[in-house]
Amino acid sequence: MDLKLLDPLLTAQGRRMRGQVALNADLNGTLSEPRPTGSLQLTGGEVQDFAIGAHIDHINALLQAEGGTLRISKFEGRAGPGTVSASGTLGLLGEGMPVNLNLSARKARPLAGDLMTVNLDSDLAVTGQATGKLVVTGTVHINRAEIRIPEHLPATVAVLKVTRPGVTPPAPTPGPSIALDLTMDAAREIFVRGRGLDAELGGKIHVQGMVDKPQPVGSFAMQRGQFALAGQTLTFSKGEVGFDGGSLTDPSLNFVANTASANVTATLTVSGNASNPKITLSSIPDGSSQPISIKSLIKIIRTGKTLKM
Predict the structure, then answer these.
(1) Exposed, middle or buried: residue 151 (CB in 10 Å: 0-12, 13-18, 19+)?
(2) Which of 268, 265, 266 is nearest to 254 (CA)?
(3) Rounded to an integer, what distance in angstroms lies between the CA atom of residue 66 and that of residue 61?
(4) CA dist., res. 154 & res. 151, Å (int)
(5) CA pair distance 189, 289, nearest whole angstrom
(6) Are 72 and 61 in contact (CB under 8 A)?
(7) pLDDT tens digits for range 247-302
(8) Measuring CA to CA, which residue among 229, 130, 115, 228 is closest to residue 173?
(9) Alpha-carbon distance 62 to 86, whole Å?
(10) Nearest to 175, CA basis, from 128, 140, 214, 139
(11) How high is the pLDDT of residue 83?
């Protein structure tokens, strides 16, 4: 079978699959307790998700079924310059369909889009029950990540829910609940660039909770960073993107830069969250602190001062 036949189902979702599947199997037993034996082989496989920029190609896989167990004897693919692989078993007849999988990546680039590109190593384990609860554990080491802030965010696309009169839509099929116990680390080389910002970060976070509501703990500390505005450069030598009590998509911010003039030291602070950052200008010795507008900030910068910690 050519996986191109799945285009009518996947294209509307912004996905694509390619490859040739060969099935050689027998099915015995009863409808309530089927006993499949045989193999399924995929050659020249490719999986692509255009929305998030995920792409894995050159996939070759061999799945074998015997005695009520489906075994991944081989799964290898390429993600950019690196590789991904998987092995493990799925119990077709056991209670809840027990799962025991191992996933690994080496110098893989599973994401490459306009907003983010990631190169990583990982060793993950998926255990539990396919029809019950799964647990994903392991480590993800980020070799390099590029996060780009676009000059103009793309317009949102309205999705219309279409129903046919007199036809009751099928109830959504609940999937397994997936718990997380992951450690993500990067010594450095997490770059955030765009709209005048050029920063490099590194650190470690631990992600627990459920996949639909992860609970990250930890932070990425700034290794270096600067912000170009109105022809001048603000140099931040202290900064942190924190995830304690926050979310993976909306971390807290804490960036500071100082400048001294006469007997007054001015401090520029960027705080708040990524979705709602706050810029505050304070001074010593009077200790006053007030939010500052972009217009006022440009005026201060144009005096020729460069803010440094």
Answers:
(1) exposed
(2) 268
(3) 17
(4) 10
(5) 34
(6) yes
(7) 666 778 888 877 666 666 667 777 877 667 777 777 666 555 555 444 555 555 55
(8) 130
(9) 11
(10) 128
(11) 96
Report d(CA 166, CA 36) in Å as an integer.
40
DSSP conformation class of 11:
G
Cβ proximity of 100 and 76 under 8 Å: no
This prediction's pTM: 0.74
- Give the HSE-up count for residue 191: Cα atoms under 13 Å, Cβ half-sphere: 15
For residue 104, CA distances in Å to 76, 109, 139, 248 come to 10, 12, 10, 22
Name, in order, each residue with C-beta under 8 angstroms of 275's C-beta and a sequence gap of 6 or more.
250
φ/ψ (deg, to 5) at 187: -65, -35
Six token digits for residue 32: 């309530």
Q: Quote the CA–CA distance of 140 and 151 in Å, as a whole number.
A: 30
Q: Which tokens go with 123?
A: 């060793």
d(Cα 198, Cα 190) in Å, to the nearest integer?
11
Q: Please report which residue ranges of the chain form alpha helices under DSSP H.
A: 7-10, 294-301
The CA distances from residue 113 to 86, 109, 117, 118, 266, in Å, are 24, 11, 6, 9, 39
Q: Which long-range contacts (CB under 8 A, 24 or more apart) does 267-274 make?
A: 268/234, 268/292, 268/297, 268/307, 270/239, 273/246, 274/241, 274/249, 274/250
